[in-house]
Amino acid sequence: MAEIATRARVSVDTVYATRGRKPLLLREFVETAISGTENAVPAEQRDYVARVRSATSARDKITIYAHAITGIQERLAPVFLALRDAATTDQECAAMWAEIAKRRATNMGTFAADLRATGELRTDLSDQQVADIIWSMNATEYWVLLVRERAWTPAQFAAWLTDAWTRLLLA
Fold first, then answer.
1. Least confident of 30-39, 55-64, 146-155
2. Which domain holds residue 142?
3. Does residue 130 contact residue 23 with C-beta atoms inside 8 Å?
4. How far is residue 146's CA from residue 131's CA, in Å, rounded to a whole number?
């Protein structure tokens, strides 16, 4: 919070008064990073979600989502990791981390069902398994490992994620 106040050239008290405690500020950062706008946009109103839902083939849905998540991770990673780390010592941040993880899992369940509706998914994988695979591989930690630590470009990551999900999930 002190670093945020310093960068904003205000007092820590001003940050608390205008934006709230750390968990609230982190939530706002997470939501705006995911949305890619100055204000949080609910998932069902995001452009990439509409494009995924309107695509007719599983391959197109996967491609759209893999590219979207790559763009999101470029904005989200530092904030998400800060929330994850804060969750180890702050109960409010831990509750928020758990809530966001649950929401991500629910959203991946919706995505898995959307993929299943194309008739192109492997029949030996349940929707829950499909959702879990996507949920794990779209995690910030995964992106950080490959893009930040192994120096992949975002374009390489998006192409690889598309290929991996296509090979893992489609019949």
1. 30-39
2. 2-169
3. no
4. 21
